[in-house]
Amino acid sequence: MPLASVYPLVSTRALARPFTYEVPDGVGKGAVVAVRLGRSSTRGVVAEVGVEAPSGISPAAVGKVLDRIPPPLVDLALWIADYYGSTPARALELVAPLRRAPRGTRPSPAERESLAGEPEPGSLTGEQRTAVARITTAFDEGCGAHLLLVGPTGSGKTEVYLQACAAALERGLGTIVLVPEIALAPQTVGRFRERFGDTVAIMHSALGEAERRDERDRIASGEARIVVGARSAVFAPMRGVGLIVVDEEHDAAFKQESDPRYDARTVAAKRAALEGAVAVYGSATPRPESWARLERIELSVRIGAPMPRVRLVDLRREAGYPLSAPLLAELGRLADRGGKAILLLNRRGVAPALHCRACGVSRRCGSCDVALTLHRDGRLHCHHCGFSEPVPEACPACGSSQLAQIGAGTQRLETELERHVPELERIRLDADTAAEPGALRATIERFRAADRAVLIGTQMVAKGHHFAGVELAAVVDADTGLALPDFRAEERTFQLVTQLAGRSGRDAPGLVLVQTFQPEATPLRFAQRHDVAGFLAEEIERRAALAYPPLRHLVTVVASGPDASGPARLLREVREGLASVDAQVLGPAPLLRLRGRHRAQLVAKTSEPRRLARQAAALLAAAGPALRKSGLTAVVDVDPQSL
């Protein structure tokens, strides 16, 4: 029997290499097989057939074939392990997940989860035709391409995706469509099902195990030639991929926050390169990295309606918070004549903190260095570790009863609206209301069907939704993001305001109100003018001076442990071990304590992210026994989205 290199799906770094096994004839790259490893059994993935046996080794035979995955996915997984400093086993589990449930007769999740689609327009704009032509030319050239489709909300980017998908199907090629969050999947699935019917499959983490298997089988068999889903859909077992669409490509949700810490946007580019496919990244507010590195296709105007007017409301001159006088006046007009509004406040709960006026102490989580958030259930909650406690009657520190609520969250905003404009139906969309299965779709449909209503929510409400009849959009507190100690703070504030503005006035004149204590802030000035190119030019110039992306890559190493000194000590040793890599390494610096563990961070700016991540991972693997003994853990993150 031929010999093959097989990666056992065992995550320990001590076994992060291939082993040689005998395989039956006909078993090729991408086969998932049962293998013996010492005294235990596990799954393995065949990476290469026709190898030589190591000297003095008599290879064992593999067991039965359990599954098969497309060979390009094996190469993709091994690249992920290398680039992101992970192990081959952890990366291969992304493309060869364990399959337990037998296939049964169940409704298609794509059918169940999709919202109503839209009919095909009678004609395309000239810019849309140019965009579709550029993509189809790339299909016919057969060497792949990475394209950035830029255009304001309502400029017809989705129709370009649909037309490009049709062109791919005509050529016998499949399409993967990535959206940043499950919240956007029902609307996107509906649009593709309206055009392409049952050939559309859906993939995301909220599906049950049996449904995930059903969809994977439909994709692997070729029954489904279009896949819509969140970041994990980039690993769909589709053969003959011709098009990968990354919609709302600016969104940080494309970054996986557990090992392997891959970025689905980067992985989409690599998969497209491996398969000779076309990757199209779309956004009204693209990342500086995409703007600087990709070939751009521009849709310059909104179809059917002008962009809404954006007005900055200076909260330094307003007595009301969270509802200023201008915002209340506009909501009152909607209450009188009918219409819809969207209000964005990127904080949950009633108030972000409970503060003692006597001693100045805020109630904080005992396990995390964060203030507890007051919720309507009469309890204080930690949004990091899940701890909660009843609201105290007096300050635990000094005994004073002078406890004040600081700031506002979506629950308080909902209460204020009920008091001031009870005529408007109040619909809240945040992580609390969307937790139950089907709740998100029900919330969206309820808002769509309403006559006069206000949708209150966190950043979910600004992402990609197309609601008819929205005349008013408001950012209740634009300063929330600007205050974060992250070099992307201005970029994200600009994106959030501009994206929310796109929800207003899609089919009628619209207005956007932005409440802020900093009306002179750069991202707000550019957002007021809808000036995407101007903001990106200034942002890239600022980052160039500081050697931030897109000029260089970032790699972080975050360590955590039971005491304050351990993480910093470990990171000083890691920093010494990275001296041979071309990088500017900053830190270690302390981070917030989370879940009872102290944390610290190194930040490296480098042009060699793969080499640095590989070196850092090797250092941590070598220190593994000592780390386990001291209770320390450390993770490497390439291209982190938050510092």
From TrEMBL:
Domain Helicase ATP-binding span(s) in chain numbering: 138-304
One GO term of the biological process aspect: DNA recombination
EC id: 5.6.2.4
Keywords carried by this UniProt record: ATP-binding, DNA replication, DNA-binding, Helicase, Hydrolase, Isomerase, Metal-binding, Nucleotide-binding, Primosome, Zinc
Top EC group: isomerase
Binding sites annotated in the UniProt record for Zn(2+) 2: C365, C368, C382, C385
This protein's GO CC annotations: primosome complex
Reaction(s) catalysed (UniProt annotation): Couples ATP hydrolysis with the unwinding of duplex DNA by translocating in the 3'-5' direction; ATP + H2O = ADP + phosphate + H(+)
Co-factor requirement: Zn(2+)
Co-factor remark: Binds 2 zinc ions per subunit.
Residue ranges of the region described as Disordered: 101-128
Binding site for Zn(2+) 1: C356, C359, C395, C398
InterPro entries xrefs: DEAD/DEAH_box_helicase_dom, Helicase_ATP-bd, Helicase_C-like, P-loop_NTPase, PriA, PriA_3primeBD, PriA_3primeBD_sf, PriA_C
MF terms in GO: 3'-5' DNA helicase activity; ATP binding; DNA binding; hydrolase activity; zinc ion binding
NCBIfam families (alphabetical): priA
Entry similarity comment: Belongs to the helicase family. PriA subfamily.
Matches recorded under HAMAP family: PriA
Function field: Initiates the restart of stalled replication forks, which reloads the replicative helicase on sites other than the origin of replication. Recognizes and binds to abandoned replication forks and remodels them to uncover a helicase loading site. Promotes assembly of the primosome at these replication forks.
Protein name from the UniProt record: Replication restart protein PriA
